[in-house]
Specification:
The chain has 2 domains: 17-77, Helix Hairpins; 81-273, Up-down Bundle (Four Helix Bundle (Hemerythrin (Met), subunit A)), CATH 1.20.120. The chain has 7 helices and no strands. By secondary structure, it is mainly alpha-helical.
Length: 277
């Protein structure tokens, strides 16, 4: 006599299967952190450990996100409750990113509004002068303004792509995402050109350090967002983004708009106001 009973799920949540990916992610991040420390201290093998950590993190991300896409697209585990939880997770992640950049803005404003002498033994600064003497700042109406226009335009193209997806317009979805990705690459290339022709280095004072930390981390976020959108572009071309199931694209659009808003604050506060003599 068969006493087995078929398991029925009495809740709308998805309990994920056991996976080695969380452990792999933790070990990859450990290798990344150790490699970065060794590399920065110019220890033998530091660059190899760092590159290994980066490669392992990227592989873990690839397999983990592929699993999430498969759970939603093919296994239909993304119920309304699951999608709600994922959206809350993305909102909290973006909120943490806001706090991340808030620290850099705090450091920049603290040094620019109150350029007093606690750090005079490290960075010489004449009281009341900002930017410090000897710093040749960027013209905000040159490359920074062009990059501002690029990001504002990219915000409209990603919104165009989103509306095209909601209307099942596959052609405009691909077009909008393609233009957005190209604009993201253009922004990165222009920022790299700007850095290559900068009149000051990272370690030349409090202005230089806060400038490069704030704008450099934003540039890193642009690269991440461009990759995020490129993955969705590939999914759009493959026909796996639908009006009913496109959380990945929705999150990429949220992230990109966050990157746009942060840049507007950087342009106004760091390039224009903070760079004026």
């Amino acid at each position: 006599m068969n006493h087995t009973k078929e398991h029925t799920q009495s809740h709308p949540y998805h309990l994920v299967d056991p996976s080695p990916l969380p452990l792999a992610g933790a070990m990859s991040l450990l290798a990344l952190a150790v490699g970065a420390a060794l590399f920065l201290h110019e220890k033998p093998g530091g660059s190899l450990v760092l590159l290994t950590g980066v490669a392992c993190v990227l592989l873990t991300m690839f397999f983990w996100w592929r699993t999430v896409i498969r759970e939603g697209l093919h296994e239909h585990h993304h119920t309304g409750a699951v999608r709600h939880g994922l959206r809350l997770g993305m909102i909290l992640f973006i909120a943490s990113e806001v706090m991340f950049f808030f620290g850099f803005f705090w450091a920049f404003f603290n040094a620019s509004i109150f350029p007093v002498l606690p750090l005079a033994d490290i960075w010489e600064m004449k009281e009341g002068i900002w930017p410090p003497e000897g710093i040749q700042t960027f013209d905000p109406w040159d490359i920074p303004f062009i990059n501002t226009l690029i990001l504002l335009l990219s915000g409209t193209t990603v919104t165009w792509a989103h509306h095209a997806l909601l209307e099942n317009n596959q052609r405009d979805l691909v077009r909008g995402l393609t233009i957005t990705v190209v604009l993201g690459v253009c922004f990165t290339l222009l920022q790299a050109y700007e850095y290559a022709h900068a009149a000051f280095g990272f370690s030349e004072g409090i202005y230089s350090s806060t400038f490069y930390m704030a704008t450099g981390f934003h540039g890193f976020h642009v690269i991440v967002g461009t990759i995020f959108l490129f993955v969705n572009l590939m999914r759009a071309r493959a026909g796996t983004l639908t009006r009913e199931g496109h959380l990945g694209f929705e999150f990429a659009a949220w992230y990109w708009h966050f990157v746009d808003v942060v840049w507007l604050f950087l342009f106004i506060c760091v390039y224009w106001w903070g760079g004026a003599h």
